[in-house]
Design goal:
The chain has 313 residues and is mainly alpha-helical. The chain is 79% helix and 0% strand. It has 14 helices and no strands.
Length: 313
């Protein structure tokens, strides 16, 4: 098992290097000169060639392409992601850390909603297959899966906040402000995992071990919870784990709809202001989160599933 874990960690390193290189290349392929953009954001009245050359030297843009990437990657490994063009007195890391708690709070509440709602509903849909409840939930899942997050957010604001006056439309002052954006972020994931858990449980109900358990006289409730649900969740571990970085990256639209002061709002603002170091670091952060959580939950699934654990030896 130790060899398998070490092998998986080592296999993730080249992928992280590729992600970092793509982030670096993508930003540097943008037609605008970052030095000129930085001067415009600093509201320099007259942009001369000498001023542009000076800023290019400050930002290290006068060095060869590969050397710039190596220096940038080395700085990233030290936690130095550069200086924000919009706020030259602040580092990119400082800007991200300022907005990260709000995004983690939103993603955390959304993740809890996904688990609390999708697991029991998925179980009930499997137990009462083709019943009234199952049919209704399948119709709801079908509709909500196809609805974009920004449209769901606007619909909830109109219905819950404006028409019913139950929750605030925007802001971040209290837990009430978290409910609508968290539900908006989690809705599509709830629908996905309801369908996934339902289908996995129905597949496991057909297995021979369920028949043997019935023959032995084990109560149906125990068979359902201790055997069918447990085996069904093995295949869901990686999918649920991957939803964590997806929730964090998926808040980018919802945060702007609800004026939530997180990474998504910072990213959109940076795109409009051409704050390239912030955009570059945000994309890199999301890529690292996807690789990291995929690695973590892949290992956890291998540890929890005896069949996969046997194959890894």
């Amino acid at each position: 098992m130790k060899q398998y874990i070490i092998k998986r960690i080592l296999s993730a390193i080249p992928l992280l290097i590729i992600i970092s290189f793509v982030c670096f290349v993508f930003i540097n392929l943008i037609p605008s000169d970052p030095a000129e953009v930085a001067l415009r954001i600093r509201q320099v009245p007259i942009i001369t060639e000498e001023a542009v050359a000076q800023v290019r030297a400050e930002l290290g843009l006068d060095k060869p392409y590969l050397i710039r990437y190596i220096f940038w990657l080395a700085d990233c490994l030290r936690g130095d992601f550069g200086i924000s063009y919009v706020n030259p007195s602040r580092t990119v890391a400082g800007e991200l850390m300022r907005c990260l708690p709000a995004t983690l709070q939103l993603a955390g509440v959304s993740f809890v909603m996904v688990l609390v709602l999708s697991i029991p509903i998925g179980v009930l849909c499997a137990v009462y297959k083709d019943g009234v409840f199952d049919r209704i939930m399948r119709a709801i899942v079908f509709m909500t899966t196809a609805m974009p997050a920004y449209w769901v957010g606007l619909l909830l604001i109109w219905l819950v906040s404006i028409k019913l006056d139950l929750l605030p439309t925007s802001g971040s002052g209290s837990f009430k402000h978290l409910i609508l954006p968290s539900f908006t972020v989690s809705l599509s994931y709830i629908s996905t995992y309801i369908r996934l858990i339902r289908n996995n449980m129905l597949e496991n109900m057909k297995q021979d071990y369920v028949l043997y358990a019935n023959v032995r006289g084990i109560p149906n409730r125990q068979i359902l919870l201790k055997h069918i649900l447990k085996n069904s969740m093995h295949t869901c571990i990686v999918a649920i784990g991957m939803s964590i970085p997806q929730l964090i990256s998926g808040t980018i639209v919802v945060e702007n709809v609800f004026a939530w002061p997180g990474l998504g709002t910072l990213c959109i603002s940076s795109i409009f202001n051409r704050d390239y170091p912030v955009i570059q670091t945000y994309v890199l952060l999301i890529g690292v989160l996807f690789v990291g959580f995929n690695l973590l939950f892949d290992i956890l699934q291998t540890i929890s599933d005896p069949r996969l654990r046997k194959e890894s030896h």
